[in-house]
Amino acid sequence: MKSNLMHLIPPVSRDRVISQFPKWYTPEACLQFKEHFHEQVRTACQQSTGRSGLKISKVVVVGDLYVGKTSLINRFCKDSFDRDYKATIGVDFEMERFEIIGIPYNLQIQWLEDALRENEPDSSFIFLVGTKKDLVSGAVCERTELDAIRFANEMQAEYWSVSAKTGENVREFFFRVAALAFEQSMIKELEKAAGNVAQIGTGNLIKLEKNMMEIPEGNTQVSLNCC
Question: What is the pTM of this model?
Answer without folding.
Answer: 0.79
